[in-house]
Structures are given as structure tokens and as C-alpha cells.
Specification:
About 35% of the residues lie in helices and about 25% in strands. By secondary structure, it is of the alpha+beta class. A hairpin with a 5-residue loop joins strand 4 and strand 5.
Length: about 220
């Protein structure tokens, strides 16, 4: 994936990118699946754009309980808040698959307010922040209910709306979906099996098809 296809560089042209690179504020690095890009507690100064692969944003408490907060796909950005606010990371950023990450020192890049890309970058950062808040809000909706089925129905309904189809592929395997919804994997799998038997949906691995739009609790 080309750098300019990442959401952070929307409206940026080739000439402006070349000028940015003169600041020596960008670097690329390749990672393998399960590599940790950032650890909880780190202080970082670079925002990250995923050029290939994908990244999971995870929280692991002191007892080892894991929650997945977000999935970051190719073209998307993460760690912008921590990079700009100089606050210690409260999450881990872990490669969900082999990935190439572009690191950008935003403070160096935005030091010159007269640069032609300056207002474009501010606009892009605002939009990235808004989308991140939306993603976190959606997860809150998915985990608000105490029951397993309501959480699944909320998440799968959201995916259907997002994909504009009742058939879609989710970015999680079964354990990751359990971690995202704060559920036990075994209980999650059993509930999915019951929902399939009841004719509410069909699935194979991470491909789902919703067969009934009525929320049977």
C-alpha cells in the first residue's frame, strides 16, 4: 500500500509528501504476526499508519485478562492520542498478522504551521480522532448488555450496517471476538451454535450471514 493511501495523508499530494520526507520524520518497519509494536506503559512520540496487514489494540490487566478494544486495518492509523499528549500507553498494539507500519513524528512534521500540508494534516487528525471515538463508542454498545446473545446481536447488526449487507466477514477469529465482547470463548461458541440451530444466522470461521433481523433474545 502506498503512503498516500493512508487516512493520515488524505488530500496530500506527491510533492508535499516529498517535502515532508525531507524532515526525516518517517520510518517504516515490518513486523510478524503477534509482534508487539507498543507496550502498555511506554511513552511514544510517533503516530502509526498501517501500510499492510492489521493491528489489534489490546488491554491486558494485571491478572492477565485480555480485552480487544479495536482492530486497525491497512490504511488506518493508531496511537495518535498518546503520541500527541505524551501520556503513557494504556494499551498494547499487537500485530494480528504480518504487517508493515509507517511511524511518523507528528510534532516534527507539524512544527511549521506555514507548511502547505499543515491544515490538511490537522483536518485528517480530527477525522481520525472522530472515527476512533466512534469505534470505541460502538464497542461500548456491544458490551453494555450482560447477556451473551444481546452482545452478539449488537455486534453482528453493527457489522451488517457497516457492510451494507447481511453477509460479511468480521476481522476477528473466535478468541478475538470473545476478547472484543468480553466473553468466555466457550460460552460464545455455544451461543453461536444455538443461534445457528434456531435459524438466526449461519457462519463459517469469520464469515457470517444473518438469516433473521428480529432480535430473538
Amino acid at each position: 500500500m502506498k503512503i498516500l493511501q493512508a487516512s493520515l495523508f488524505q488530500y496530500i499530494d506527491e510533492q508535499e509528501l516529498l517535502q515532508m520526507q525531507e524532515y526525516r520524520c518517517m520510518r517504516r518497519k515490518k513486523y510478524e504476526k503477534n509482534d508487539i509494536i507498543f507496550h502498555t506503559g511506554e511513552r511514544i512520540s510517533e503516530i502509526c499508519a498501517v501500510l499492510s496487514g492489521s493491528v489489534m489494540i489490546e488491554n491486558v490487566d494485571l491478572w492477565g485478562n485480555k480485552s480487544i478494544l479495536n482492530h486497525i486495518g491497512a490504511g488506518q492509523v493508531f496511537a495518535e492520542t498518546y503520541a500527541l499528549c505524551d501520556e503513557p500507553m494504556m494499551v498494547d498494539a499487537v500485530c494480528a498478522e504480518n504487517a508493515e507500519i509507517l511511524f511518523i513524528d507528528l510534532k516534527a512534521l507539524l512544527a511549521d504551521s506555514k507548511a502547505p500540508w499543515y491544515p490538511k494534516m490537522l483536518h485528517n487528525l480530527l477525522m481520525i480522532s472522530a472515527h476512533m471515538n466512534l469505534a470505541l463508542s460502538n464497542r461500548i454498545f456491544c458490551t453494555a448488555s450482560k447477556g451473551i446473545r444481546p452482545r452478539l446481536l449488537t455486534y453482528l447488526s453493527e457489522q451488517a450496517v457497516k457492510n451494507n449487507s447481511t453477509e460479511f466477514i468480521i476481522p476477528f477469529n473466535r478468541q478475538q471476538l470473545a476478547d472484543y465482547l468480553n466473553l468466555d470463548r466457550s460460552a460464545l461458541s455455544k451461543e453461536l451454535g444455538r443461534m445457528q440451530k434456531e435459524g438466526l444466522l449461519s457462519f463459517h470461521k469469520n464469515r457470517f450471514k444473518l438469516l433473521c433481523t428480529e432480535k430473538t433474545m
